[in-house]
Design brief:
about 325 residues, mainly alpha, Arc Repressor Mutant, subunit A, three-stranded antiparallel beta sheet, 15 helices, 10 strands
Amino acid sequence: MKGLSLKTRDVIERRFGLNKKKEETLESIGKGYGLTRERIRQIEKEGLLKIRKRLEEERGVFQYFKEVLRSFGSIKREDIFFNFFIKENKEKDIQNIIAFLLSLANNDFTKFFQDKNFYSFWSENEEIGKKAKEVAEGILNFLKKENKLFTLEQLFEAQKENAQKVFGSDLDKTLFLSCLEISKGIGKSPEELYGLKSSVEINPKGIKNKAYLVFKKEKRPLHFTEVAKLIEKLPFSTERKPNLATVHNELIKDNRFVLIGRGLYALREWGYEPGFVKDIIYKVLKESERPLTKEEILKKVLKQRQVKENTILLNLQNKNFFLKNSEGKYNIKEG
C-alpha cells in the first residue's frame, strides 16, 4: 500500500475491510468524501492496478497460497481455507487480508460466492470449482436417498465412482472431503459422521430431539432427570439449563419414547411397546398361542417394563381382561 495517496489507501482499506472493520460499499465510502459511487470505483481500480504491478515482483505469496489450496485438492471452503493461515501464522482477524491478496492474484484463483446451496469457496480455476459443485450435489442426493449417517470412508467408497466420472480422473479422499464441505445441505455430527444437515443427529432442534440423541448415545433406558443432565453435556448450544418438567413432558408427548418404569424411558425403536403394564400383559397373551403361567408372563413383561413383579401380578388379577384356567395358567378374557 506504500506509495498510494491517503485517499486511495483509505478507499481500498475500507472496501476490503483491511482496517479490521466490515467491508464497506462504494456508496457508503462515497458519502464520506462527497463523491459518486462510480468515482470511488475508479479510485479503487487505479489503486489495485498499482498494487498488482508491485506484486508481480512478489509472486512467492501467491505460490504459497496455491500450494496450500492444492494440498486440499485445489478447492476449499473459504472459512476453512482461511483458518489454515490463521493457525499457521497465529494471527486473528486476517481473513480480509487474505481475501484481499487472493483478489490481486489475477487468474491464479477463482472465488465462488455463497448462494442458497453452497458456501463461499476458492478454487484453482473455474472448471474445478464447477466440477466440485456437481460432485457435492451428487453426494447430497445420495444422502437424501439413504437418509442416514456415514463415516467419511463409507461415503467416499459409496460415491467415489460417480465423483471420478465428473473429474475424469482418479479422486483422492482429500478432494472428496473438500467437495462435500462446500454444500450447505451436508453436515457433520460430533462423532465425525456425515449426513443431511437437517438431520436430528447433526442439527437437533428442541429438547425432544436432543433427548433422542442422548438415548442414541447411551444405548440404555434412562430416567428423565438423567436425560436432562446429559442434554447439557451434548456438544450443541443450549440456551438455558433444561427444565426437568419440560424434559418429562416432551418425552411423554413424543412417540419415539416409551415410559417403561417410574420416570424411566426407553426408545421405541429398541423394541419397547407403548402402553400401561396391563396393555403389555394383554399383548403378551395375545401373541401367545397358548395360556401362559404366571412365571412366563412375568419374564416377558419384565423385558418391556422395569417395574416390580407385584405390579405385574396385581394387573394380572384384573378379571375384566384376564382369566386363570384350572391349570393355573392365564389367558385373555374373551368378549
